[in-house]
Amino acid sequence: MRDYVISSKTYGPKGNKFAESVAKSFPLSSIRVGDVLQVKRSSSGTYGHSVYVSVIKGSTPDKIFVCQHSSEIKNRTLENLINGWGGPNTCYIRGVHFSSAQFQK
After folding, report:
1. Half-sphere exposure of 36 toward its Cβ, with a 13 Å CA cutoff?
2. DSSP labels, the chain
3. 51: closest CA among 62, 35, 40, 71?
4. How far apart are CA 48 and CA 85, in angstroms?
5. Model pTM?
6. Residue 94 and residue 17 in contact, taking contact as beta carbons nearer than 8 Å
């Protein structure tokens, strides 16, 4: 999914990047349920993992919950995800809001 959703195309899901930064500076108040967050371990390289935002109980990493297919983890805190990817000073996050989808018949 890395760049597929935000790339220009005729068919498939379409999304818009709403933020991209190191975790400690990421605008958590911009996150919505259903968004995709992509993470990587440094400012360079490609995003290595994607999660869906499932529950929001506040605007801090311990109050935002995500789901992922790896290990079938459901409702993991964003704080736990960030720490697993190097912590708030090392983990980089890209946020994607979905806008639409179009598929061939």
Report:
1. 21
2. -TTTTTS--SSEEEEEEEEEEEGGGS-GGG--TT-EEEEESSSSS---EEEEEEEESSSSGGGEEEE-SGGG--SEEHHHHHHHTT-TTT-EEEEEEEEEEE---
3. 35
4. 10
5. 0.85
6. yes
Residue with tokens 């190191």: 22
Chain segment 30-86, per-residue pLDDT in tens: 999 999 999 999 888 888 899 999 999 999 999 999 998 876 788 999 999 999 999
Distance CA 48, CA 25 (A): 19
Structure tokens at 95: 């946020």
Total number of residues shown for the chain: 105
